[in-house]
Amino acid sequence: GRSDPSVPPSGVSCSGCGAELHCRDSAAPGFVPAEKYQSLSESAAGLRGAVCQRCWLLAHYGQALRLQLPPEQHRRVLSAALRRPPRHGRGSLLLYLLDVLELPDPVLPQLLGLLGPDVPVAGLLVVGNKVDLLPADSPGHLGRLRQRVVAACAQAGLRGALLVDVRLVSAKTGFGLEGLVSQLQHSWKCAGDVYLLGATNSGKSTLFNALLHSDYCKSRAPDAVDRATVSPWPGTTLNLLKFPVINPTCDRIFRRQERLKEEATKTEDDLSSEEKKCLNNLKKQGYFVGEVGRTFQRQKSRPVVEFDPDMLSYSIDEDPKHSPRKHVEREEFTYNEVKDARWCYDTPGIVKEDCVLNVLTEKEVKLVLPTHAIIPRTFILKPGMVLFLAALGRVDYLQAAVEKCTSLILSPLDPLHIPAYFGGLTFSLVPMGGEERMKEFPPLVPQDITLKGIGTTEAVADIKLSSAGWVAVTAHAEEKLLLRAYTPRGTTLVVREPPLLPYISTIRGARIAGSAAYRTKKPPSLVENLKTTGRK
Asked: Which of 152, 266, 390, 515 has the fewest CB atoms below 10 angstroms from its CB?
């Protein structure tokens, strides 16, 4: 669609990303093609509830438009929002969401600098997201993951009275969300506004949508507040979206606890066929599954069927006439409902610098980012062998006395090659576009790494290839290893010690005869808040 610079901005926010709707510049956030903009403006509903072209393409086609939005603008919007004066005599609660796969989180150390001394913050609650993607490598692995997040907070200077709590959740499958809502209602109650913060692609919009349909949100709000656009493309939230927080009175907390107790007595056999279908689908997507319910449901009036009797009768010489669709009025909050409301805001994602996702196209991002439970792949390597992850990374095994075991943790769609030597051109899925795309893709840059093994069942370290995945290295105790790892120029390679999943190499099948690889093995999924039936 064409743009029309002569038309002034609408003053109405996109219900998907929060940007102001306009038709002036197709490269700016909030753009709507001029033809569509005019038709919406002239309709009965107007632009209220409409989405911009970018959100439409993200939601319906999974495509992302390249926008002229520098990282400085993201930070400026976020900084201005956090520096608002307290509306209720108390500072805001920051709900910082980090991707546990990305530990150490690249944005967490910048948080204090972003806030500054003049930001009225009363507390910080750190939430580790996407735990559903990681298999349990040993008993108590969730507790170990939580300690890793706590240690990351301490290293970033976030401790003491400022740090309210650390939680682990999956915004996608619902695991841990009921506990998060309970923590928010017990510790924070309804003292002030809440801001969702986090790096791009940490899952903020997914969490925002889940909380919108939970006991943390006013019961009528889902009918009046649009859901945030969810997509794997980094930076999908461009401005501030919000919903009103429910006041957790003693009666409401009691009724909520009774609902949770009742649901905890159910088994999978007690679920409806539709609930079982949804549960089985979530089990395929993640290792840890939960459910987000609602205690306070708004009673909706039954729809009244209206018809025109004259439209039901017509002669055999006439075609039946169809009446135009009746406009459905959108739900709106009254002044009394929101005059003293506390709000939960979804903020723009903080752009991660030196990230491999920044050099990928939208189709390539979909291939790289894991969306389902990750199944590790384990290999036995000898000196001179190489792990080659398309054009996103490479690990050379240069020197050691014996073989070593490596477990590769990647998206299931990532192509993997294990050549004993390099020669010629290797074609792979990422980057896409053949030789022309490879010419503009940044070259791989090496970094030498020396490690000392601690045992054949426990990894000594992870070699994290930016956001493309990581390699967990296992070797005999006291065995020295010399490795050379490569990542695209301009991206960050991290040696993660201790490793995120130290016993990940034990999750494997039998060795494939005549191969360096083991067969893969997927552990079973765990369902939260459901009784086990005792069946195998």
From this structure: 515
